[in-house]
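Schema walkthrough. Field components (list of strings):
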Amino acid sequence: MNDVAQLRPVGWVRSSVADPGAAARQGDEGAPDVVVELVPDVAPAAADLRPGDELLLLTWLHLADRDTLAVHPRGDVDRPVTGVFATRSPDRPNPIGLHRVQLLEVDGPRLHVSGCEAVDGTPVIDIKPVLGTADER
Amino acid sequence: MNDVAQLRPVGWVRSSVADPGAAARQGDEGAPDVVVELVPDVAPAAADLRPGDELLLLTWLHLADRDTLAVHPRGDVDRPVTGVFATRSPDRPNPIGLHRVQLLEVDGPRLHVSGCEAVDGTPVIDIKPVLGTADER
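Field assembly_structure (string):
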């Protein structure tokens, strides 16, 4: 890329949580299981995913503010304003969400995964396996 | 995003390795230390990063093929063709690289970080702290 690159959704998060104000701050802080509904033309990329796999979902946090460079961590005004690269704030120049999940069930193009705080309708931009040690790669 | 979202570089990898064919496959497989040269207008987002921090660099693997949906893992033709979401292949619909590094030194807008396999000139699109346990967040 020179100045910009264009992301394309590879799927969408389907969650019982639609309101960012009601979402958990991280997947292991009470977030519900969700479905990743794959875009049909990229579904072959998911052909070898199996229940039990530990995965990283990358999402595009489409409700975030891209001009924010510093925040109170976790919205706690008692904590000093901190540059966003030292936080997991969704507000950042490229609002990419990173979510560690376990694959629970594969139902055609619908991947059921464990706790994920991304709200309903969040675009999924990549899926990667959690890396094992070097001799398992 | 509806169909696409536009990424903007927040920095660039400066590495002694320019040839993808000569690059390590992962950061812990012999990759050199590199510099992340921040774009000046986002440098405030990095204000609170400190040497010793464990970070995730997200990069845009600009030399990758976005139409590839399956590969031989690690280019090994003895391994069966596998959907890219079950691999760390750079060739994938949105070629985002995920690199765990340690911050070694901060020199103005230049962040010196430990072993990273991204080649010289790779755009950096986000920097995140590695998450500690829930009570450390």
